[in-house]
Amino acid sequence: MTPLSYDPDNTGLVVVDPYNDFISEGGKIWPRIKDVAEANNCVPHMLEVLTTARAAKFRVFFAMHHRFREGDYENWKYLAPIQRAAWHRRSFEYGTWGGEFRAEFVPAPGEIVASEHWCSSGFANTDLDLELKRHSIHRIIVIGLVAHTCIEATVRFAAELGYDVTVVRDAVADYSDEMMHAALEINMPNYASAIVTTHDIVAALAV
To answer: What is the Cα–Cα distance from 82 to 88, expressed in whole angstroms?
Structure first.
């Protein structure tokens, strides 16, 4: 394997959906993710990668899911199943604790929060691509939730747009081991140039 190497001038960290509803005890979706997330220490690993990237002066971007607001989707002709589920659960409800960043992941001054994605891809119908390009970023490192939906969709879209993508396998989580396997072992290897551990990425960023 070629040694990992990243240049802060052209590489950014993309943190996907660090909402309380996803990754905090008491969050609406946490009970579904908890077993897998705790088995691979997903949240501590996410924080370790973020802390290392900040210390090494890599730019940080947040790709956040649309937060539920009253009236969402009511007049839409078509809804994807994942959107219908989020609507019914009132996932990441705006103005509530569940729709806030988990405290350790609140963006620091100068970090970029892209416009919220409506389905799964952090790029579709958002300004994430524009923000990355404005900051001369063409390589991204992706961490966050959920492996087979928002992470995979963001990675696929990034590859389509020409970005070089790295996924940190133990800084993502999913609803089951089967879903993790499908995302990390079957699907994303077609789009991500590297799928690595937190230990590997921290070592590469801290050089």
So the answer is: 10
The candidate with the shortest Cα–Cα distance to 143, out of 72, 70, 49, is 49
What pairing do the DSSP bridges indicate for beta strands 139-144 and 112-113?
Answer: unpaired
User: Per residue in 33-50, pLDDT tens?
Assistant: 999 999 999 999 999 999
Question: pLDDT at position 147, please?
Answer: 98
Q: In what order do the strands lie in the sheet with 112-113?
A: 112-113, 59-63, 11-16, 139-144, 164-172, 194-196
Q: How far is CA 66 from the centre of its chain?
A: 13
Which residues, at least 6 apart from 98, have a Cβ–Cβ distance to it below 8 Å? 19, 20, 21, 27, 28, 91, 92
Write the pLDDT tens digit of every residue in 160-197. 999 999 999 999 999 999 999 999 999 999 999 999 99
Q: Which long-range contacts (CB under 8 A, 24 or more apart) does 50-55 make?
A: 50/13, 50/15, 50/105, 50/143, 52/201, 52/202, 52/205, 52/206, 53/13, 53/141, 53/205, 54/108, 55/206
Q: CA nearest 89: which of 27, 151, 177?
A: 27
- Tokens 């996803």 correspond to what residue? 22
Taking the model in full, what pTM does it have? 0.96
